[in-house]
Amino acid sequence: MKKFTVAELLSSTNYLTEVTLNGWVRTFRANRFIAVNDGSTINNIQCVVDFENTDENTLKRITTGAAITVKGTLVESLGKGQNVEIQVSEIKILGDSNPDEYPIQPKKHSLEFLRENAHLRVRTNTFSAVMRVRSALAFAVHKYFTEKGFYYFNAPIITGSDAEGAGEMFGVSTLDQNNLPKNEDGKVDTTKDFFGKTTNLTVSGQLEAETYAMALGKVYTFGPTFRAENSNTTRHLSEFWMIEPEVAFNNLDDNMDLSEDFIKSVINYTLENCKDDLAFLENRLQQEEKTKPAKDRSEMLLIEKLNFVANNNFKRVSYTEAIDILRNCKPNKKKKFQYLINEWGADLQSEHERYLVEKHFKCPVILFDYPANIKAFYMRLNEDGKTVRAMDVLFPGIGEIVGGSQREERLDVLKQKIADLHIDEKELWWYLDTRKFGTAVHSGFGLGFERLVQFTTGMGNIRDVIPYPRYPQNAEF
Ligand code: 4AD
Ligand code: MG
Asked: How far is the CA of 60 from the centre of ligand 1 (A)?
């Protein structure tokens, strides 16, 4: 007999067909109705047991979390909430789940509790919905770039370069930490290490992606990224996934266009393909919002917010304009910001980004042309000599979701910048080669995948949109 998924059966009208279904018990009530879920959809299928003809021991073993195989007839359902149900003729318990020990009971669990049980939390409606949306978004990313003629490029995970120059890297070493080899100066002799040099986990695949864009034209990365910043926020992970497109001959305007079109496209994909999960998440969020003070509640429901982003232009604002707005805004004048904006050149904090997006413009914002000295070395210097062709896309509830730039393609300007920042030019010889041989205008950006999942699912904490979050003092599982 063909095995069906719950999703297939729920959308079937082939009544009276004999079917087999594997899944897990969500609830069992009145010794008769089993709600079965198999992950194929947020919805459960109701399986009706003929308890008079089922042995008592089997009935006892139908507990929340148990794995079962059900054989039966698909029939039209008279109960409300579902069109079909299965009239069970045979039920087999594949794997028991002791109700006294199983942590995921059919009741509301806190997100904190579920985080401690990250290996089981995907068995809840909330986490299964989030992870299905995450999967759909990942597919939409590959679909978007493939259809636009990009090549998928895999940047190395272990690297000798610090792309962002921020020094927030996790070291990779096989040296015995209790017995480190030393050189004459008393420093660790890294030539004895596995790669014969200092190596780290990558913070960005951008520099390597640039070398590929200089031959393949349009490339993108989509891979794990690591940052050893000690940020205990709802928007930072130590291990996250980043998508980094890099395009030859694109200037900053092209780059902004690409980021906006890309984000809208992947959000639209979920609106079309994750309807049940988004409806569930919207409802969940609505319940959560009710517990907040009225002034902190979101003005839009989740799906409305996604449609709003997908259908409206992002507002493009220069850093200089943004500073003017921030300097004169109420929370700045009333000293409500934690970091007050006094002058041009200030680095923007998340509170400022969110003020611009949520209070001032009330739509996604792309800020561009930032001061050179608060941005990375590879960004193209503007004619004014003090700003660079940087861009950040800012989102409601999230703040920065994308960071990118037009790259400095002029060898002499780039070398000067590297020297000014005391970066070792020898380490970047291969990067500089792209400026020596056939250099050209090019641009790219990085989108934090989890921040996108957070926005799309409405989850408040980034630790709840990746299966096993990594953050300071936590690497369980
Ligand atoms: O702004 P960032 O640091 O930019 C880069 O790494 C560039 N090399 C990208 C490029 O131009 N190719 O990071 C890009 C994005 C951020 O906007 C944010 O969404 C995400 O990566 N991000 C993080 N997400 C989760 N946890 C963290 N610790 C993150 N740090 C950055
Ligand atoms: Mg950034």
From this structure: 51
